Amino acid sequence: MTLRHQCQLEAQMKVRSFFVMDENFLLQRVRTLRLLQLMERHNKAWSLYVFSSANALKSYSMEQLVSLGITWVWLGLEGMAAAIRSCATPYARSGSRAAVARIRVLVRASSAWRNTLPKTSTRLSNTPSATIPIPPVHAVHADPGTPLYAQMEQDGVMLGPDAISDADVHGQYRFNYRHPSIRRGPRPRCCCGRSSRFRRQRPSVMRIIRTSLAGWRRYKNHADPRIRDRFAWELKGYSTFMAGALWASRRWFRDNPVVAER
Amino acid sequence: MSAILRDIHREFGLKSRLAAPLLGRYLLMALRAKTSASAGSDMGAAHLL
């Protein structure tokens, strides 16, 4: 896609955020930096949602990430338990970098889960990422149309559509497949993130609000008007709807003072 | 949440102080209604979080 196409989409659909469905987007440094150059030249304050590895993310400076408008990063952790452990350090480092740049990071672990024990998820939850202000959301599922899904369907482990709610498409309540180490039904506490990590960190949406607000505070007086404009746009509705959502959430969690007060 | 809400009030002033309880009450009612409606299913309110 060229910048011209993106500009057309922006005008036709009246959008300014784009989900880049190219998993190698940040790996293609020359192309990405060229895009940044063009965005600066044409005064485009877009928000980009990208897939990335920890190493690709840390190959850019914070100023470059912010100027590019990298707002959301889907950080992939795939492999067996040992690979997950080896990812922990660059993941935490890139997470810290993202936290400084006020980028929201979603951590996605997929194929690893099928062949690993539930304790792996506890290990992942206890990586240093759990202490940085980004929401590690473990989306554990195979998407229809992917080779992983086809393989799992062939193995006869996928559950039918009647067993999974559309609202649970990301598998936060229940895996969409039969895990060899997990009984049928809701995910065990160690996997669903509602145990100790939840008590420490609050719901993901609340952490997203905090990250966005911190981004606004950090960059609202930035020298580049493009960056100021993007952060202002991202905070639209925070003074009304989000304030109301927080007020309601505080009431909702009043029996959990740790979460309600933080 | 209280801390984030205080930050929002500090940032946006009167607008958010007025909006928070008004919209918040509506959202809380909607959330409770949704939870009651889904109480029969085994999904409960888990997906709302």
Q: How is the topology of this model organized?
A:
The complex is a heterodimer of chains A (262) and B (49).
Chain A: H1 3-13, E1 17-19, H2 29-41, E2 47-52, H3 54-58, H4 62-68, E3 70-77, H5 81-100, E4 104-109, H6 111-114, H7 119-125, H8 147-154, H9 189-192, H10 196-201, H11 204-219, H12 225-234, H13 238-252, H14 257-261
Parallel strand pairs in A: 1-2, 2-3, 3-4
Helix pairs in contact in A: 11-12
Chain B: H1 2-12, H2 14-38
Spatial sequence of strands, sheet with the most strands of chain A: 1-2-3-4
Mean pLDDT of chain A: 74
Main pleated sheet of chain A: 4 strands, parallel
What composes the largest sheet of chain B? none
Q: Would you report the number of β strands of chain B? A: 0
Find the biggest chain interface: A-B, 37 and 30 residues
Rg calculated over all Cα atoms of chain B: 14 Å
- Please report the distance between the alpha carbons of the first and last residues of chain A: 43 Å
| Morphology of chain A | globular
Give the termini separation of chain B.
14 Å
Helix content of chain A: 40-55%
**Mind telling me which CATH architecture of the largest domain in chain A this is?**
Alpha-Beta Horseshoe
Assign the CATH topology of the largest domain in chain A.
pyruvate-formate lyase- activating enzyme
Strand fraction of chain A: 5-15%
Structural class of chain B: mainly alpha
H/E element order of chain A = HEHEHHEHEHHHHHHHHH
Following the backbone from N to C, one meets helices and strands of chain B in this order, namely HH
Characterize the quaternary organization of these chains: heterodimer
The total tally of domains of chain A equals: 2
Give a quick rundown of the structure:
The complex is a heterodimer of chains A (262) and B (49). Helices cover 50% and strands 9% of the residues of chain A. With 262 residues, chain A is α/β, with parallel strands linked by helices.
